Amino acid sequence: MLALTTRTASAPARRCLSTLLSLNEEFPGVPSTSPSPKSVSKPEITTLPSGLTIITEANASTSTVSITYPSGSASEQAGESGAALAAKHMSFKSSATASSARILYDLENAGASTFSTVSRFSSSSGYTCAPEQAEGLLGMLSTPSAYELWDMRDARAYAALDKAEMMQTPETALSDLIYAASYGEKTAAGKSLYQTVSNEGIVSFMGRELVGGTLVATGVGDHKAFVAAASAAFASATGGTPSSPPAFTGGESRLAASTPYSHVAVAFKAADSNAVNAVVKALLSAGTGSSAAGFTADGLVGAYGSSLAGSAGALSEDIMKSVSSAGSGNLDSAKAVAK
């Protein structure tokens, strides 16, 4: 009897619910099932007389501010090999106006997290924070380094750790070695990113190359106010001179390793369009199946993979065939993946 009572009581409730709410009505308190299109903001660009380019974009809940210089390890001169990697670890260290401890305190107090990267042809550093903190931290990007001995000592030690990690990871080792094959081992672009440098080399490289650049900020609503703040922070900055693009020659480079596997990377000169490079990357990944994966790097696009020792040649041929024999169907699929 109790079960029967429960069933008869629930049936009217179901009928009542379907009667009260039609298919195009929304449940109270539940997010809309037909949300309005997301608003898209357009980047605003300003170039200062000093040559510094400022780009802001408002459509973000947090702010990310970064400065990118058109200089990486390919811009190193004699006596500076390894300086670009060490300079990466000099970001947010002692400056002309604050110690490393003070900079760290201010960053933590603002709830900001920092990052820095380096490649053959560019270097960048920046921070992510709440939008209201974005302008106040600009000085940490603009103030020149104090080149304290302990900061440079630590930077060289961290660079040595980067090299040790690189040698333990085949993909990373290939990513470095592929430039020697692409541009030549003795060229500025072909030499290894991971080298030992002196304090003098760090000072020389940073003072000459890490100037000017492009400042990009997301999550900034007032472009004019940010430009005014950046103009004040970078008032003494001068425009840098980008290195001339190296000549892509193509070739081969090998590294002996005691491993039962052969690791192979094949690369091509990247196109000027990031969209095209994304399609080529997807095409390489799809064309070689599970044996290789496509990649994009600074100035290059290609694929790397591994096989049993002695099968490197066959794997290289498979990667090449994935490009030369690509049909319209493969291209359409690659375009869909790249979107």
TrEMBL record:
InterPro entries: Metalloenz_LuxS/M16, MPP/UQCRC_Complex, Pept_M16_N. GO terms for molecular function: metal ion binding. It comes from the Eukaryota. One of its GO terms (cellular component) is mitochondrion. Residues 57-188 form the Peptidase M16 N-terminal domain. Pfam families: Peptidase_M16 (PF00675). Belongs to the peptidase M16 family. This is Peptidase M16 N-terminal domain-containing protein. It comes from Triparma retinervis. The lineage of its organism: Eukaryota, Sar, Stramenopiles, Ochrophyta, Bolidophyceae.
